[in-house]
Write a structure and sequence with these properties.
With about 110 residues, chain A is mainly β. Chain A contains no helices and 11 strands. Chain A starts with a strand and ends with a strand. With about 110 residues, chain B is mostly beta strands. In chain B, the strands form 2 sheets. In chain B, strands 2, 4, 5, 6, 9, 10 and 11 form a 7-stranded mixed β-sheet that branches. In chain B, strands 1-3-8-7 form a 4-stranded antiparallel β-sheet, with no helix packed on it.
Chain lengths: ~110, ~110
C-alpha cells in the first residue's frame, strides 16, 4: 500500500514560534513529494520536491526531502496566525496520481 | 492563474437521491480528479480522468460514478446517496508531472 504518514496530527503554537511538520512515505514508484496548505477552502500548492537534500524556500516556509530515509519536513519560522491551516503532504508515484497523508492541523495563537 | 470551479459550496440531499457534483477547469488540463476529505483520513481519491470519456477508479470508487464529456468538465455522480457519503468533495485538475490545482470543495450532507 502506498502510505503517506504525517506527524503530528495537530499542533498548537504561539505566534513567533518555529514549527516542523513531518511526512514519511513508502518508496513504490516515487516521483515527487508535494506540500499543500488548506485553510477554509481549496488546498493551495506550496512545494514540489524531487531531489534529496535540496531545500525549497518561500518566505518563512521551507521544505526538504530525504529520499534515503523516505521523509520530508516542512518548516515554518516566525509563525503568524495566518499560518493556521491544515498542511497536507502528498506523494506522486506516477505522472498523474497523488497519495495524500491525513494532514497536520496547525493552530497559531496570538 | 488556474481556476477550478465546483458548482456548489454546500449541498443537502436525502438518502436514495441521485446527486450530481460538477467541476469545471479553465486551463485545458488533461487530468481531472475527484476526492473526498474526511477528518483524520486526509484526501482519498474516488475517480480520475486523463482524457475526455476516459476514467480510472481511485481508492474508493464504490457508490460513485463519473462523466467526462468535455475536457473542461468532470462530473461526480452518487447514484443512490447514502448517509455515509456525507463528506467534503474536492475536485482537482493538472497536467502530467505537475501539481494538482483544487476547487473550493462541496460540503455534501445526506440526510
Amino acid at each position: 500500500e502506498d502510505k503517506v504518514v504525517q506527524s503530528p496530527l495537530s499542533l498548537v503554537v504561539h505566534e513567533g514560534d518555529t514549527v516542523t511538520l513531518n511526512c514519511s512515505y513508502e518508496v513504490t514508484n516515487f516521483r515527487s513529494l508535494l506540500w499543500y496548505k488548506q485553510e477554509k477552502k481549496a488546498p493551495t500548492f506550496l512545494f514540489m520536491l524531487t531531489s534529496s537534500g535540496i531545500e525549497k524556500k518561500s518566505g518563512r516556509l521551507s521544505s526538504i526531502l530525504d529520499k534515503k530515509e523516505l521523509f520530508s519536513i516542512l518548516n515554518i519560522t516566525a509563525t503568524q496566525t495566518g499560518d493556521s491551516a491544515i498542511y497536507l503532504c502528498a506523494r506522486a508515484g506516477s505522472a498523474r496520481q497523488l497519495t495524500f497523508g491525513s494532514g497536520t492541523q496547525l493552530t497559531v495563537l496570538p | 492563474d488556474v481556476k477550478v470551479t465546483q458548482s456548489s459550496r454546500y449541498l443537502v440531499k436525502r438518502t436514495g437521491e441521485k446527486v450530481f457534483l460538477e467541476c469545471v477547469q479553465d486551463m485545458d488540463h488533461e487530468n481531472m480528479f475527484w476526492y473526498r476529505q474526511d477528518p483524520g483520513l486526509g484526501l482519498r481519491l474516488i475517480y480520475f480522468s486523463y482524457d475526455v470519456k476516459m476514467k480510472e477508479k481511485g481508492d474508493i470508487p464504490e457508490g460513485y460514478s463519473v462523466s467526462r464529456e468535455k475536457k473542461e468538465r468532470f462530473s461526480l455522480i452518487l447514484e443512490s446517496a447514502s448517509t455515509n457519503q456525507t463528506s467534503m468533495y474536492l475536485c482537482a485538475s493538472s497536467t502530467d508531472f505537475q501539481p494538482q490545482h483544487f476547487g473550493d470543495g462541496t460540503r455534501l450532507s445526506i440526510l
